[in-house]
Each structure stands twice: as structure tokens, then as C-alpha cells.
Amino acid sequence: MTDSAELLHKHSFVELGARQRAKALLDAGTFRELLDPFQRVMSPWLSRQGVVPQADDGVIIAKGSIDGLPVVIGAIEGAFQGGSLGEVGGAKLAGALELAAEDNRNGIPTRAVLLLETGGVRLQEANLGLAAIADVHAAIVDLRQYQPVIGVVAGSVGCFGGMSIAAGLCSYLLVTQEARLGLNGPQVIEQEAGLEEYDSRDRPFIWSLTGGEQRFATGLVDRYAEDDVAQIRQQVSALLKQGLPAQQRSTQAELFLQRLARLDAGPQIEPSVVRDLYQGERS
Amino acid sequence: MSAYSLRGLNWFNALSAGAKAVEGLPASLKVADGFLGEQAVRFIAVVADPDNRFVRARHGEVGLLEGWGLAKAVDEVITADQDKPQKRALIAIVDVPSQAYGRREEALGIHQALAGAADSYARARLAGHAVIGLLVGKAMSGAFLAHGYQANRLIALRDPGVMVHAMGKASAARVTLRSVEELEALAASVPPMAYDIDSYASLGLLWETLSVEQIEQPSANDLARVAECLTLAIGDVAAKGRDLSGRLGATNRTASSQVRQLLRAQW
């Protein structure tokens, strides 16, 4: 295929909203949204702060199948309040994961796919967002006993805050080059630690440390895909079929402590140092 | 006054008097195996290590070593008690000002280290260990998610220095494009935004709050009250199960229950 023909056949995943992303991943005709926008279950906290709430609170829960396997998708809308999680959106995610775990205890092998574009806690609902994210963590670890939980960080918001911890709990993670994955947002690090430590406006610097390519090269995610609907769908499907990993990434404390023990933490760090430390043989 | 809080360390030392210190963990973790009455427990605290190899984690922040170290400390208990009918309880003593903010931390995947800690606490819960979080100081954001928030029961001491929040005030103001004064004014009328423990209690996330005489350095009375409360919490977990459903039901957290009911109905 020529370059231009290839471009014409590519459909960007990153440019899709959360609902379209969920639809694009599910088998045709199987998308069914729970608590859709017409039910208007909205944040009870935003309007009193002068922020216009959204009818789905920025989280889409959809059931359906991927290559015939039963899944629930939790998709965060990065375009609403930076994908931040408040009480309602957080409860939608946690509740869906809890029901998926319950399904498995009742013999229904529901899997979960999380589409993560989020800055983490919605600060206007601070402690309720934080509590909901703790519930999400609990539910991922519960469901993961039975079925893989797959996290997709496609971009362009990335995945930060308490939800980056949720990503770290997923059985598998898939990213694109556009993705960023990290605990603290660049602005906050700059605020807390200073410009010299972290320049929040230096985009190449930030991507070199926390971007999708670097996270893949350091083994902190499992798959790296192009920004293309078909590719991402194929990769998610392959991960679902893979079943549970031999060992979850977040249960490897001993390995990571050994790696950190080998690091000279004195000098400021470079991306290549992390590649060598975490994935020497692959970089 | 010290540049960092000593509450966590002081409460750890008081509660774990006579307990056996656990070795082989980062110096910023205090871990000991002991008893509360008849109940075998492991006490776990994150404390300041001024010599921490990671300079951004020298004031008690939860960083890379702390996240993975907590995971290790909890995993040991899960493995050791695997075939025992009586599981040790885990007591997370919480006095954590924040997660570590730094370039090394992001580059080396601090999110994954904190996931390691949350993972281990959650698996301990699922394996039948009672996990109790005791809030004696700050319980902030990612640090609290890694150390304490997976507990079956949360107990907070009543004191202005005991705070739960998602972000420090200065950063929260910057991110939400407000002044610190505006933020404080809003926090006074929006309970989930507040920093004080009474507002937090109104969200229904705490199992108990306790007043003590000497928050910084517990008195004998304080120690006895808190130990009794911890024992009751462990008993409550044994009676009512291992999930986090006990956190739902408060008036200020109605939507969390409503969403779950609707999801179930439409599932």
C-alpha cells in the first residue's frame, strides 16, 4: 500500500471521544450503555461551584463483546474536566468493575477494558474522587483474580494521579506514542519541586520520561500500538485472549526493589538510565 | 519543631512496644510484628528518612522505595499466613504528607510502585487479613491510596493535623485556577473539598473517630483507647466481611450508592 492509501485507511483512535472509542472496540451491534446521558445522573457537587456538569459525568460504561468475549468497558472522557474523576464518574467505574467481579463469582466470565484519559481526582470533588479511586483499585484487584483487566492509554490527556495507580494495577496496559503515564502531572511537580526538577512546558522532556514509547521500552506497559482503531482493537482482543498474566506487574515488589538498589540515585536521571535498569536486554 | 512530622513514628513506637521489628525493608518503613490483646498483628508506618537515597522522599513522602517496600512488607504476611486459619491483622499507621514529587520518581514509575502497595493491601484484604488504617496525621492523595486507603476500616484521631485530601492547597489552587483563599472559601461549603477531619467524616468513609490527649506523643490513656478501638475494628471486620461496602451510606455520599444501584439494575 502506498503511504497516502495507508493514511486513508487509518482511523485515529485518539481523535475519538470516549463513547466512540468504546463503540469502536466492541463487536458491531453489541454496544449497550449503562447509565447513559439521558438518565442524567450528574455530579451533585459541580454546579454549586460554578462548573457546568455533564449528563454522563465524563464516564461511559458500556457492555458488549469483543470477538465474542463478554466485556464491560469503562471509558473516561478526557474532554470533560480533563477526564477527572468525581463522585459519580468514579462510582460508575468502581461499580461496573465490582459487578464484573460478581459476574465471575456467578460463572459469567466478564472481562473489563478501561480507556484511561484522566488527570486523576477531580479537585472540585476532591475527597469523594479519591475515595472512588480507592474503590476502583479494590475492584480491579478483585476482578483480576478471575479475568484480565486491560488498560488502554491512547492519549491525548494521558493517565495521571490515582488513576495511574489504577493503570499500574491492570493486568495489561496498551499505549500509543501520544500517551503519557505518570503519577504526578507536570504542573504539580513543577509547583512542588521547582522548574529545575521538572519543566512542565518542556513537552519533549516530559514525553521522553513518561510517554508511551518510553513506558513500552522500559517494560512498564505491555503493548505499543499506532493510533489506529483497527490496530488497537486487534491488540485489545489479543490481550483478552491471552487470559491472566503469569504474574501481575504490580505484584513484583522484589524485582523492582532489586532494580532500584542497583541505581545510583545521586545524579539526575535520564530516560536511557531507566531503559537500561528496567529492560537492559531489550533497549 | 522538626521539618517533618514525627507522629507516625511516635504512634508506631507506642503501639509496637514489645513487638518484633521486621528487617530487610527501606529505612523509611517501620514494620513490626506484635499483638493487640490476643490478636497477632503487623504494624506498618511510613516515616521520614532524612538520608533517603531519593532526595524527593526525605520527609515521609511515599516514593519508589516506600511503595515497593510496603508491598513487600504486606506480601510477606500474606505468604507466611497462607495456610493459617488465623490471619495476622495489618495496622497501617498513616502520617503521610504526600507522594514524592520528582523527576526520578516519574521516570522510574512511581505510579507502579504505589500500585504495588495498593495491590498488596487489597490482596491481603481478599485473603482474609483485617486491614485497619489509623490516621494520626496527614493522609494525602497518592500516598494515602498506597498506604491506608485499601483498609477494611479507617480510624482517624480528632485533631486539626489529621487531614485527608487529594492535593495540597497551593497546587490544588493552581490546577483549578483559583486563589488559595477562594479554595478555602469553597471548602467551607463543599464537604468533599474540605481538609478537616470532621468534613471528611461526614462522607462516611471513617469507621470511627477518636479524641486523644496527646496527638504528637501518645499518653498511656491514648494508647489504651486506640489499641482498644483497633481491636474492635478487627472484630468488626471478622463479623462483617472483607469488602469496602461499609464506606457507603452517608448522606454526603448518596450518589455513590445511587450509581451502584442503577448499574446493578441495568447490568
What layout of secondary structure does this protein have?
The complex is a heterodimer of chains A (283) and B (267).
Chain A: H1 3-9, H2 18-25, E1 32-34, E2 59-66, E3 69-76, H3 87-105, E4 111-115, H4 126-143, E5 149-153, H5 162-169, E6 172-175, H6 186-193, H7 203-210, H8 212-217, E7 223-224, H9 229-242, H10 253-262, H11 271-279
Parallel strand pairs in A: 3-4, 4-5, 5-6, 6-7
Antiparallel strand pairs in A: 1-2, 2-3
Chain B: H1 7-15, E1 20-21, E2 29-36, E3 39-46, H2 64-80, E4 89-96, H3 103-107, H4 110-126, E5 131-140, H5 141-146, E6 153-157, E7 163-165, H6 169-175, H7 180-189, H8 197-201, E8 208-210, H9 220-240, H10 254-266
Parallel strand pairs in B: 3-4, 4-5, 5-6, 5-7, 6-8
Antiparallel strand pairs in B: 1-2, 2-3
Number of strands of chain B: 8
**Largest sheet data of chain B:** 8 strands, mixed
Number of domains as seen in the coordinates of chain B:
1
Overall domain count of chain A: 1
CATH architecture of chain A: Alpha-Beta Complex
The CATH topology annotation of chain A reads as 2-enoyl-CoA Hydratase, Chain A, domain 1
Helix content of chain A: 40-55%
The H-and-E topology of chain A, N to C, reads as HHEEEHEHEHEHHHEHHH
Total strand count of chain A, please? Answer: 7
CATH topology title of chain B: 2-enoyl-CoA Hydratase, Chain A, domain 1
CATH arch. level architecture of chain B: Alpha-Beta Complex
**Percent helix of chain B:** 40-55%
Organism (chain A): Pseudomonas mohnii
Keywords (chain A): Transferase
Pfam family, one (chain A): Carboxyl_trans
Protein name (chain A): Malonate decarboxylase beta subunit
